[in-house]
Design goal:
Largest sheet: 8 strands, antiparallel, barrel
Strand content: over 45%
Strand order of the largest sheet: 1-4-5-6-7-8-9-10
Shape: globular
Length: 170
């Protein structure tokens, strides 16, 4: 009987240790770096933007968009909201913009800023740099978005982007 109790206790102890290891691995996975790809729904406009003609550009301010993102890594899936300012240069058939962005899901959210370049011959590309919050605290997401194909490629990594190098000394 003593052998059975010792064996049973040993098995339970190993099971608890294995369960703890799995729990630690799951926590570490939520902080793991990853290469991510995904798609998103067609952005829908929110609110009424303001606009004006100035210095050869149509200046559009306070544009709002929402979209749903589906990523190969669930940390970057969720509801996107974006507030933007855009300038369209009709002569050059080019558009530039900047935005505040957030992607939110049940585990956390990503917040940050983005820029884009678009035009008749340029396509339309947006780059986002976002910090994680809640379960994603301590992580950064760098995202390159193709607005024409409605796809994106991203990296999730711990910490910040590398610092910009100092200019060379004269």
């Amino acid at each position: 009987m003593r052998v059975i109790k010792t064996t049973t206790i040993s098995i339970l102890a190993l099971g608890l240790l294995a369960g703890s290891a799995v729990g630690v691995a799951a926590q570490e996975d939520s902080q793991a770096p990853a290469s991510v790809t995904g798609t998103f729904t067609t952005p829908e406009g929110v609110g009424v933007p303001t606009g004006a003609w100035e210095n050869g550009a149509t200046r559009m301010r306070d544009l709002g968009f929402t979209s749903t993102w589906d990523a190969s890594d669930p940390r970057l899936s969720g509801a996107l909201s974006l507030r933007a300012n855009r300038d369209r240069y009709d002569r050059q058939q080019m558009e530039l913009g900047s935005a505040l962005t957030a992607i939110e899901n049940e585990d956390g959210r990503w917040v940050g800023a983005g820029t884009w370049l678009g035009g008749d011959e340029l396509g339309e590309t947006m780059t986002l740099l976002m910090r994680g919050e809640d379960a994603y605290e301590g992580l950064t997401a760098y995202v390159v978005v193709d607005l024409v194909t409605q796809t994106f490629a991203a990296s999730i990594f711990p910490g910040d982007m590398p610092a910009v190098p100092e200019p060379p000394a004269d």
